[in-house]
UniProtKB/TrEMBL annotation:
Protein name: Probable CYB2-lactate dehydrogenase cytochrome b2
Native source organism of the sequence: Phialocephala subalpina
Keyword Coiled coil: no
Signal peptide segment: 1-16
GO MF, one example: oxidoreductase activity
The keyword Iron-sulfur appears for this protein: no
Stated family: Belongs to the FMN-dependent alpha-hydroxy acid dehydrogenase family.
Length: 367
């Protein structure tokens, strides 16, 4: 008994020091482990979104990979984003008719039709993974009817990305921007975005100051947005007055700010992850969310809370190492996972998923 008691603190510290699994083991190393550094495994061998990171890590050089992989400071938020979905267990219902689930994937985002409730989040520098850069992302999105949000700090210009759309395309995009109070410069960007077919402006509001990026700093691949930015709700109004496109704040992380967004007339908001569940704003504006989504079940957990569409950043950036084909495969894989996971959850119509399909008790067994 005595020895057991003295062991307890050790046991506790051993659990606290559990390793973080950036790439959960699903056997990819066993099957593809002998792929030469600097080459990509065949696209057919990719079975899920995390595989793209594994493949791209061996293919991209370390500094380029690190720019995509990096999280802030000790990367606790990065890890939390990947782990948080697993703390909430699904509550599958059985013996319900789910045979038409695939036909319920299409949805609208700000009134525009898309084939699935997920989108490609704005990420800078797609050229680090593929020479065609953002062209692979916009074409992959077009071919599969999903929403792409081009980043302002893309490798290609707003016009080049638009030119990469299929001929005579009516593809809808939402242009991401970082803006300051220079109205003339902002207005010019809005005009370019509108001309390029953007139907909304994604205004990133969560980077008022430079990102604290330790991992990236070692390779000199820090943030593209490195100044202190003057951003307030007054600035939001000033900017909204410069364009007829709706301006959507991206990076809302608290209930207070979500309510302020509604009060200030935002038509939609993008939150980063689960943090804001149970917001009553869900009935007042469209809510999109991103951060750490890697599996169909992650998407379902966000949709169950009332999120209208879910964004993914890194998985698409890594998939783009294969160019358009990789992006298309990522979309196809995720659509399939959403459909089969919803089926096994007993959800016959994705529009009818609700919070009762998830146990909202925090199952944080390793804390
Ligand atoms: C390489 C990279 C570049 C990014 N660049 C931008 C950007 O320019 N503007 C922006 O609003 N968000 C940017 N993001 C954040 C994404 O839009 C998105 O919120 C995030 O990637 C979602 O998390 P996930 O990568 O786990 O899916 C970037 C993310 C990554 C990984
Ligand atoms: C969007 O989808 C709806 C319902 O399927 C359809 O009636 C409408 O014409 C579509 N809109 C566009 C612009 O394609
Ligand atoms: C890494 O790859 C990127 C993208 O191809 C390239 O721009 C960069 O120069 C490379 N860096 C090194 C150190 O090889
Ligand atoms: C695309 O538009 C051009 C000019 O508007 C037209 O000449 C051409 O036939 C169109 N192509 C297709 C495939 O619709
Ligand atoms: C925006 O435009 C509205 C209507 O024209 C006006 O009432 C308001 O003062 C303007 N706000 C700013 C911040 O420019």
């Amino acid at each position: 008994m005595h020895s057991f008691l003295t062991l307890l603190p050790l046991l506790a510290s051993a659990l606290a020091a559990r390793p973080f699994l950036n790439e959960p083991d699903t056997g990819i190393e066993d099957v593809l482990g002998d792929i030469a550094v600097g080459t990509l495994p065949p696209l057919e061998s990719i079975v899920g979104l995390p595989d793209f990171e594994w493949a791209a890590r061996g293919y991209m050089n370390t500094s380029a990979y690190t720019y995509y992989r990096n999280g802030a400071a000790g990367e606790w938020s990065y890890r939390n984003n990947l782990e948080v979905y697993n703390r909430f267990r699904l509550r599958p219902r059985v013996l319900t008719d789910i045979t038409n689930i695939e036909s319920t994937l299409p949805t609208t985002i700000l009134g525009h039709n898309f084939s699935a409730p997920f989108f490609i989040s704005p990420c800078a520098r797609a050229g680090y993974a593929h020479p065609e850069a953002e062209a692979g992302l916009i074409r992959g999105a077009a071919a599969n009817g999903i929403l792409y949000m081009p980043a302002l700090y893309a490798i290609l210009s707003i016009e080049q990305i638009a030119a990469a759309k299929p001929a005579n395309s009516t593809q809808v995009t939402f242009q991401q921007v970082y803006l300051d109070t220079n109205n003339i410069a902002s207005q010019a960007i809005f005009k370019r975005a509108e001309k390029a077919g953007s139907k909304a402006i994604i205004f990133t509001v969560d980077s008022a100051a430079d990102g604290n990026r330790h991992r990236a700093a070692r390779y000199g691949v820090g943030s593209a947005d490195s100044s202190y930015s003057y951003m307030t709700w007054d600035v939001f109004h000033t900017l909204q007055n410069l364009t007829s496109l709706p301006i959507i704040p991206k990076g809302i992380m608290t209930v207070e700010d979500a309510q302020l967004a509604v009060a200030n007339g935002a038509k939609a908001i993008i939150i980063s992850n689960h943090g804001g569940r149970q917001l009553d704003v869900f009935t007042q504006v469209e809510v999109y969310a991103d951060g750490g989504v890697r599996y169909g079940a992650d998407v379902l957990k966000l949709l169950s809370l009332g999120v209208k569409a879910v964004g993914l950043g890194r998985p698409f950036m890594f998939a783009n190492a294969y160019g358009q084909e990789g992006v298309e495969k990522a979309i196809t894989l995720l659509k399939h996972e959403i459909a089969i996971d919803a089926g096994n959850l007993g959800v016959g119509d994705l529009k009818k998923i609700d919070p009762s399909f998830v146990s909202w008790t925090n199952n944080n067994w390793y804390s």
